[in-house]
Amino acid sequence: MKKKKESLFKTIIKQIPSFICIAIGATMAAGALEIFLIPNSIIDGGLTGISIILNKVFGGSLSLFVFFLNLPFLFIGYKQLGLKFLFKAIFGIVIFSVLLEVFHGVPEVTDDIILAFIYGGLLLGVGVGIVIKFGGCLDGTEIIAILLSKKTNFSVGQVVLFINVFIYGTACFVFGPDRALYSLLTYFVTFKIIDIVSEGMDQAKAIYIITDKGEEISNLIFKQLGRTVTTIEGKGMVSGSEKVILYTVITRLELSELREIVKLADTSSFVAVSDVSEVIGTHIKKKPIEQKVK
Hints:
By secondary structure, the protein is of the alpha+beta class. The chain contains eleven helices and four strands; from the N terminus they run H-H-H-H-H-H-H-H-E-H-E-E-H-E-H.
């Protein structure tokens, strides 16, 4: 019993930095909406966007709309993502909702629509990205999308896009076509920033290299980039000749250097590059310099 209590205490202590980061992210998101976007009639997507529209039409408190619209979907998300997600998501939503009310009384930073959608979108994207990175959630739209994707042939991304198209279409009648279009631009800016913040600047790239000089290229990749390379035997269907296929994973910042390596070693090689959503293990991490040169 004592060990269980100690284990629970250690788990809670370990999660404190995550909750602090979620609070910071929620603060940034709430500030972006209340001091940049909403005063200029620019809305967010998802349930937050629906809340803004309902608040505009019926009045009342935006923070209450956000909280109560998200609440049922957070409990649905518990079944999909677990108890830890539920605690972090509720914490994030509560902080976000409270701070929407706090920032409501803060004067807008600018009434320039261009500056508002750019800086509001950037700040919102960074805030939401931080929350997602540390396991929280500020909007139940993705939970809806996960459930619908399991019962239909649509992907999660397609469901989210469909929901947001409906929301921005509705915004045309509530805020006007020009504000709906600015809101759509803000969505794309925010979406990209969320991706960068939650996944990191070092997003992984999977590289396939078809070459006759597999050993030479793999040695250069290991020596200069510190990446291990997997060799796959292949055969050209047209030429009939034996080919070597090299597979490795690098960051996008290293892609330019890899191109130079391949160009230097074998100008006739074929290279295919694709995005990697997640890397598990140490393959993506560089080896110490002293190991590289051995």
